[in-house]
Design a protein that fits this description.
The complex is a heterodimer of chains A (263) and B (358). Chain A is mainly α and 263 residues long. Chain A has 12 helices and no strands. The longest helix of chain B has 18 residues. Classes of the chains: A mainly alpha (263), B alpha+beta (358).
Chain lengths: 263, 358
Amino acid sequence: MKRGSRFWSWVIFGLTVAYFILPLIATFEFSLRIRREGYTFDAYAIVFADPKFQQTFLYSIVIGICTIIVGLLITVPAAYYVRLKAPQLRPIIEFVTLLPLVIPAIILVFGYIRLYNSSSILPLTNSNLGTDVLLTFAYVALALPYMYRAVDTGLRTIDVRTLTEAANILGASQVTIISRVIFPNIIVAVLSGAFLTLAIVIGEFTIASLLNRQVFGVYMQNIGANKAYTPQALAVVSFVITWGAMGMIQLLARFAPKTARTT
Amino acid sequence: MAEEFLRIEALVKAFAGNQVVKGVDASFGKGEFVTLLGPSGCGKTTILRMIAGFERPTSGQILVEGKDISPLPPNRRKIGMVFQAYALFPNMNIEDNVGFGLKVAGVPAEQRRARVAEMLKLIGLPGFGKRFPFEMSGGQQQRVALARALAPKPRMLLLDEPLSALDAKIRISLRDEIRSLQRSLGITTIFVTHDQEEALSMSDRIVVMNEGRIEQIGAPFEIYNFPRTRFVASFVGTLNILRAKVVDGASGRIAIDDQQVLTARSMGTLQDGEVRSVALRPESVVLDGAGDKRNSMQGTIEEVSFLGAVVRVRVRFRDNAISLDTFNNPSSPPPERGAPVTVSFQPEDLLVLEGEAH
């Protein structure tokens, strides 16, 4: 009986792995077949040599970092305040942070364009910088469910109230408490949120495309529409970046400040 | 009491209309070790948190050296505090934890290092500076928390049940350490606990609290031996509470289950026939009229509990019963249940409590 159930467990596990891995293997294999004479990494060489790849990838990374910084400046104090002073607001905040998951990106971006177009009070789309700012804030909203949850989970692992009070009575201001006591103790959770955000920003297409920003996602779409093998190479590169970000989350978890013994 | 350092006046705290501190007045001397003692929910921690500045009083004042500190935020009160849960910063090593208050105050690195080393030596943990909190035991962590609270030289120290999370043996050794440290530094200290043994062994004075009010303030000897209310009598130590009828208030004569005994103090204000609660410590009562005790009563043995070094005997009169402790003596076995006995005690040991008998 036990042997039978173990067999079926392995079968289900194998099927699941195949479901996820096979398309990736197929994509990777296809990306290597740019030459008739055999497998080659030429498609990757073409991708990396393309100045547009470098340009769009760098742009996406910069926007991703800006998104992380702005996102942290909003979510860390908000989650900290809710946990410490207004726990009754938690359900409302959680609902708000989940909204980007239920509102499609297309709706979001049309809303932004309507609100911040050239004839509005705040015409952000009038300039490149303004549009970059708008894109960053759009990504902050898009990454909010992940960022807020990661920070909130981090706060849950420490005794926020007592640590705050202990630092406060020792003379620390609120800014010092957040920057020197709370933030370092949730750094791993914060970085998890940061890498998730980066992964989202790297692959995002809809908002950037409609705001006419040349991000990595838009570049991928352009290549995919016109070429045969390089899009597959790009897809694999994109997977490696995303998985690299996920791997970093796992790696960083090892460096989390350990909670103290109680006896 | 030494020169007054801290005074709380008509202090009230209400949460959502529910008063947890109900008009408390007390004053604390400079260098005094005062314990707020009481059961859970009596308001003792709320008072401590109001002194620290974590809670804002609903009304009343907190005066330190004559100045109202109520408007000051916690980080400007110059008060040290030790928490039940240690609250060491997990991301910092012990040196950084102890030096945190000094760093925040802008003390130069050299002076800070010297002060941290001095504090670690004071708590008996020199050489532990590079360790992290998770590498230390609970007792060690609490000593570090104490050093961290004292490092910036606060004008007052607040201890919020700092021993509650520790095991019994460490608790006893640490309470002696805290007390000797407090004495050597001469710092005014307010200690909150629900443990009467801690309160009795550590304090210069004890403030016994119940339901948001102060029941009695006094030295441990006074609180234990002369409790003023039924609550203090029952909360501090083991006590026999008996119902007694005043026979002759002027001469201090009362009757317990129709057996007349004397109290040491006149009860001139009481009416004859009035029913009051009286208290008697188990260690004040002896079996079989031994010695020259002036009060004696007849009863029967209801229960005998052998506790090793001590034998606890319960004697019933009629409606009332008392417990008394006798030392175990191998050559004299404990009395049998149901045997008639005489118990004796001094009039001074019989305390008439305030308020009517329940």
